[in-house]
Design a protein that fits this description.
This protein has 174 residues and is of the alpha+beta class. The chain has two domains: 8-99; 108-165, no CATH class. The chain is 28% helix and 19% strand. It has six helices and seven strands, in the order αβββαβαααβββα. It has a four-stranded antiparallel sheet, covered by helices on one side. It has a three-stranded antiparallel sheet with strand order 5-6-7, with helices on one face. A hairpin with a 5-residue loop joins strand 6 (132-138) and strand 7. The chain is globular. The termini are far apart. The model has no long low-confidence stretch (mean pLDDT 84).
Length: 174
């Protein structure tokens, strides 16, 4: 299949989505370049029109068993590139396994307490209890697993707005 260049609108959308996600893990950059600490060593990421150029500084550590398990890691150069306008969700999923536990909550996608105390990466969502609405996780069977937010909200849309904006306080303990 021949490569089809993205439209300007697609480029803008791809870069916005990539930069929004990556800026939660590293200091925002005017040059679309990021340096993220991972369990496989520092990962340098550059956002291009429709792909993410990624490279691990420590190739030996990156190719060690249990480290980079998703995507195509070049075991000689440390390159771990992600191509295509629809690559960001898969990249997020692969990257979360390489983040330090305290970094997982920083991009507000997975529950930090669910990871720390249960060893699972569970997506954050708005849940309801008798006390009100909160940000938490559900297990694989759909049951509430963890309450991640320190406070409750009276209305579901208030909790959802906090989750969407990242403007909420993470509980430190279950």
């Amino acid at each position: 299949m021949a490569y089809k260049a993205p439209t300007k609108k697609q480029v803008v959308a791809f870069k916005a989505a990539a930069n929004k996600f990556l800026s939660t893990l590293a200091t925002a950059s005017d040059t679309d370049e990021y340096n993220i600490p991972t369990t496989a060593g520092p990962l340098k990421i550059t956002v291009y029109d429709d792909w993410l150029a990624c490279r691990f500084d420590n190739v030996i550590l990156a190719k060690a068993p249990g480290q980079v398990v998703a995507g195509n890691l070049n075991i000689w150069s440390g390159k771990w590139n992600w191509h295509g306008l629809d690559t960001i969700p898969a990249f997020k999923k692969a990257l979360v396994g390489l983040l330090f536990p305290n970094e997982v909550s920083s991009f507000r996608c997975y529950g930090m307490l669910a990871f720390q105390y249960g060893g699972e990466y569970l997506l954050l969502q708005v849940l309801e209890s008798n006390a009100g609405f909160y940000i938490g996780t559900r297990d694989s069977e759909g049951a509430p697993n963890s309450r991640e937010s320190a406070i409750y909200w009276k209305k579901a849309h208030e909790a959802q707005a906090a989750l969407d904006s990242g403007n909420w306080v993470q509980k430190k303990y279950p």
